[in-house]
């Protein structure tokens, strides 16, 4: 199925999901319930909003959809279609067979085995590329605002794509009563939490938190943390200062050899940079691409350091026929849940 962002009928989507059958249930989030479906032989994920909407939001829903469907990148989950019929709002996405990064990091028994460190840094690069592309788009509409491991999906080859970009705005459009604040606790940049100011640096902060989760396999707000230091950013920065403490804090996959450990240190420096308290001290996403790109290329191109997995695409992205080197800036090419409108008192 090649079409993107096409209007689809409710009848088609009912048929595709076996009438939204429980056996097709994939998960539930802030927008609604996600079902596995089949459209003309292609497996898809159908997101069905659980709120009731009047007809007033139709125009704004359409306007947001037409923005979202223009966004196309190999590291972003594609919106294949949508449906708006009376109170129903459905979004159809490409299906990501390996689920969310959260499943792999925090619930490894759900999956066959934990991600190794090369897979983790490759996923980090994929996410950085997707986010860098979003930030390179014409206006500030594509600040994600809800980047987190459950919005990072993995395909057959464990390559990552960012999902739900535009969704926060869409939900606001559909529920105009809500305030501007949206996101997930643990990933909110301090300035955003305090004054609701949204800039690209809000996403950079969340990306830094995700990097810390990738390195430690601990959640941003992990129940195992001491009560007075409940946020990963605080603990991560503290443990980074002492090698022994840091080794204990990180996931053991990064302690397998010196190369993995050196890699973890570099990724950690990037994570700390991205989570700087002052947004002006955080880098742009293209910086993350430039740091992670050569690192990933080095890992996978070294035959002695582990075999390449057949079928995986380790090449750097091609866009409009231009092969981008790993060091070039990508800016030139084109069960914590989301809350929206919460009144935050911090
Ligand atoms: N494109 C997809 N392919 C495969 N599974 C998906 C896809 N999109 C979502 N899912 C599954 O559905 C679940 C719910 O997704 P959803 O985006 O609605 O919520 P979330 O991201 O977990 O939470 P929140 O709404 O708070 O961001 C995911 O955890 C994932 O397991
Ligand atoms: Mg999601």
From TrEMBL:
Keyword Transmembrane: yes
Pfam name, any one: PK_Tyr_Ser-Thr
Domain Protein kinase span(s) in chain numbering: 20-296
Primary location: membrane
Bilayer disposition of the protein: Single-pass membrane protein
CDD domains: STKc_IRAK (cd14066)
Keyword annotations from UniProtKB, A to Z: ATP-binding, Cell membrane, Disulfide bond, Glycoprotein, Kinase, Leucine-rich repeat, Membrane, Nucleotide-binding, Receptor, Repeat, Serine/threonine-protein kinase, Signal, Transferase, Transmembrane, Transmembrane helix
Localisation per UniProt entry: Cell membrane
Molecular functions (GO terms): ATP binding; protein serine/threonine kinase activity
A GO cellular-component term linked to this record: plasma membrane
UniProt similarity note: Belongs to the protein kinase superfamily.
Record's protein name: Receptor-like kinase TMK4
Gene this chain is encoded by: LOC120259449
């Amino acid at each position: 199925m090649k079409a993107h962002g096409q209007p689809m009928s409710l009848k088609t989507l009912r048929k595709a999901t076996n009438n939204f059958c429980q056996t097709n249930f994939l998960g539930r989030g802030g927008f609604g319930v996600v079902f596995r479906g089949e459209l003309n032989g292609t497996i898809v994920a159908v997101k069905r909003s659980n709120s009731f909407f009047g007809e007033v939001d139709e125009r704004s829903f359409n306007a947001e959809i037409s923005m979202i469907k223009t966004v196309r990148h190999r590291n972003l989950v594609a919106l294949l279609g949508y449906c708006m019929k009376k109170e129903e709002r459905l979004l159809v996405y490409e299906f990501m067979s390996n689920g969310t990064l959260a499943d792999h990091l925090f619930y490894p028994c759900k999956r066959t085995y934990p991600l190794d460190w090369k897979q983790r840094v490759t996923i980090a690069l994929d996410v950085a590329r997707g986010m860098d592309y979003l930030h390179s788009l014409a206006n500030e509409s594509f600040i994600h605002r809800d980047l987190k491991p459950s919005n990072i999906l993995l395909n057959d080859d464990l390559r990552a794509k960012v999902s739900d970009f535009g969704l926060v705005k869409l939900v606001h459009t559909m529920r105009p009563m809500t305030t501007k604040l949206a996101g997930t606790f643990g990933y909110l940049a301090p300035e955003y939490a305090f004054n609701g100011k949204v800039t690209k640096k809000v996403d950079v902060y969340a990306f830094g938190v995700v990097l810390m989760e990738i390195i430690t396999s601990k959640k941003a707000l992990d129940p195992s943390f001491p009560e007075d230091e409940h946020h990963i950013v605080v603990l991560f920065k503290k443990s980074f200062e002492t090698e022994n403490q840091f080794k204990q804090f990180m996931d053991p996959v990064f302690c397998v050899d010196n190369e993995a450990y050196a890699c973890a240190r570099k990724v950690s420096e990037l994570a700390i940079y991205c989570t700087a308290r002052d947004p002006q001290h955080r880098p742009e996403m293209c910086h993350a691409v430039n740091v992670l790109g050569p690192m990933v290329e080095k890992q996978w191109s070294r035959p002695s350091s582990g075999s390449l997995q057949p079928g995986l695409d380790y090449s750097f992205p091609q866009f409009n026929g231009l092969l981008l080197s790993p060091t070039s800036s990508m800016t030139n090419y084109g069960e914590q849940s989301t809350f929206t409108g919460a009144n935050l008192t911090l």
